[in-house]
Design goal:
Blueprint: H1 3-24, H2 54-67, E1 72-74, E2 84-89, E3 103-115, E4 124-130, E5 137-144, E6 146-152, E7 158-164, H3 166-178, E8 193-194, H4 195-202, H5 209-215
Antiparallel strand pairs: 1-2, 2-3, 3-6, 4-5, 5-8, 6-7
């Protein structure tokens, strides 16, 4: 199949997906769960394949992210193998140990991140993390506290910014999706917990140290 024919087939599939969501679920898209091959394939670079369908898809992804609810959603999570993601988080206050500052809504097109040294403290932070494509579960993931994000937005304008703390974690999580990776690939398996047990045992504090002690898994808080 030629690239043109492939793009036409992709546009038709995305259009059908959006039409079904509008007709059946108020515009909310079904979220693909772990085990689906699309989540384990490297997403295709976005070079305009969707044409004028792109704004409609991005709005549906935003609506789906809010409905879940979540703080990020990558296109493969709705079955579309393109390097697109949306992110947004209201934050959790200045005293949150996860450094969960607000992350305004934005679209990430062909994003890439690279780790940067933290301004102070350790270069990595370990916290419980979940995923809309691994519904009902969480695990502890050590991530870079500070990253440089590059790529573009939905208009094609370049992105080049530095993010710290929880916003950096969100960007890493969603960009990893586009490489065919799930957060579980980076988590100690002994840290895996149902969300019910996360609330039952570990909700008192975001600090995963008590869980690490009780479940016997290592905490990675090294410098990079």
């Amino acid at each position: 199949m030629s690239d043109g024919a492939h793009d036409a087939a992709l546009r038709a599939a995305v259009g059908d997906l959006l039409d079904r969501a509008d007709a059946e679920t108020a515009g909310v898209l079904p979220i693909v769960q772990a085990g689906a091959p699309v989540l384990r394939a490297r997403a295709v670079r976005y070079d305009g394949q969707l044409g004028d369908l792109l704004p409609r898809l991005l709005e549906a992804m935003r609506r789906t992210m809010h409905a879940a609810p979540g703080v990020g959603l990558a296109a493969p999570q709705v079955g579309i193998p393109l390097a697109l993601a949306v992110v947004e988080d209201a934050g959790a206050g200045d005293d949150d140990p996860r450094e969960r500052s607000p992350l305004p809504f934005r679209v990430l097109v062909n994003p890439h991140y690279e780790p940067l040294p933290a301004d102070s403290g350790p270069d990595r932070a370990a916290f419980f993390e979940g995923c809309l494509s691994v519904a009902g579960w969480s695990a502890v993931v050590a991530r870079h506290r500070r990253v440089r994000l590059t790529g573009a937005d939905e208009t094609g304008a370049p992105l080049d910014e530095v993010l710290t703390g929880w916003p950096a974690r969100i960007v890493q999580h969603e960009t990893d999706h586009l490489a065919g990776e799930l957060y579980l690939d980076h988590a100690p398996t002994r840290s895996l917990t149902s969300n019910e047990n996360l609330v039952r045992y570990w909700a008192a504090s975001p600090d995963p140290a008590p869980a690490a002690a009780a479940l016997a898994f290592p905490l990675d808080r090294r410098g990079s």
